[in-house]
Design a protein that fits this description.
heterodimer; A: mainly alpha; 2 strands; globular; B: mainly alpha; two-stranded antiparallel sheet
Chain lengths: 69, 232
């Protein structure tokens, strides 16, 4: 499931002022362990969480998540 | 002795007290025994609460609860089946310790469920006030999948038990009658055993699902720890 969707959360975190996983988790309303799993490509978020993460990173959802098809 | 070592020892002693009470003399129906069991479980979980901030660097609260739940349920299950083994897999209400066998297992299991629920609610309030999410969709997904596996195991176990009772009743094995499930107390103990095994499978599934997704978490946690902390 997680193999078809790639994300750029780690890169965007640093581009957005090197915010921590903990801070991003707080902004997105998730746990830090979920952010860790997402960055490791071990978990694919729901559409709602994808939008919340994108908003927390001040980015468009298509810039954060990429469907590899 | 460091603070964490002392907490670990408190935790260990409390666990040993729980197991000692369980494996010890028959205290089924005794108010004092019941209070001691609940106090020991409470002390164990309290020790863990004090440690959980350190564990929180790499594990969510739900993951920590699933880990300690697996240890607790494994200890209770082991004690229960060891008790049954000691009684020769035959339970008679006139035998000392028989009444306490199932009572102790169920009491410990219910005690753990109640206390973990109380602690979860308490921590939800504390962490929620700090802006940190206690659980999210990933936790809920893992909980639901583990519960599904647990319920499936329970249903299979109960069906298997019914089939064994039907097949075993009055049948013989190597010329001897199978007396395993010939009394209500034996059937009750078999049902408790199935419940414990299903709960153990559920806890193990939950821990496995969390660990499966945790590859590389330690590196990222260290990375985050190096970064400046944001105050809530």
């Amino acid at each position: 499931m997680s193999g078809s969707i790639k994300n750029h959360i780690r890169r965007l975190r640093f581009e957005a002022g090197e915010i921590t996983q903990e801070h991003l988790a707080q902004r997105a309303g998730a746990t830090r362990q979920t952010i860790i799993s997402l960055e490791a490509g071990k978990y694919t978020p729901s559409l709602e969480l994808a939008f919340r993460i994108s908003r927390a990173l001040n980015a468009k959802v298509e810039d954060v998540f990429e469907w590899l098809g | 002795m460091s603070h964490n070592t002392r907490l670990f020892l408190v935790d260990l002693v409390a666990l040993l007290i729980v197991l000692g009470l369980y494996l010890g003399p028959d205290f089924g129906g005794s108010w004092l025994g019941g209070i001691l069991v609940f106090a020991a479980i409470g002390a164990t979980l309290y020790g863990w609460i004090l440690l959980h901030r350190r564990l929180g660097d790499t594990r969510s609260l739900n993951e920590q609860l699933s880990g300690i739940g697996l240890v607790f349920v494994a200890a209770i299950t082991l004690s229960f089946f060891w008790g049954l083994h000691q009684l020769g897999w035959q339970t008679d209400l006139n035998e000392p310790g028989t009444r306490a066998l199932g009572w102790n297992a169920v009491t410990l299991l219910i005690g753990y469920w109640i206390l973990s629920a109380v602690i979860e609610q308490q921590q939800r309030g504390l962490l929620g006030a700090g802006g940190e999410a206690m659980e999210d969709e990933r936790d809920r997904d893992i909980n639901a999948r583990a519960a599904s596996v647990g319920y499936t195991a329970l249903i299979i176990g109960v069906i298997a038990l019914i089939m064994i009772i039907k097949i075993a009743a009055g049948s013989t094995f190597v010329g001897r009658e199978i007396p395993l499930f010939d009394t209500p107390i034996n059937i009750a103990h078999a049902l408790i055993g199935v419940l414990l095994l299903a709960t153990l499978i559920e806890c193990a599934t939950e821990v496995w699902l969390y660990r499966r997704d945790a590859v590389g978490a330690e590196d990222d946690a260290a990375d985050a720890a190096d970064a400046p902390k944001v105050k809530a």
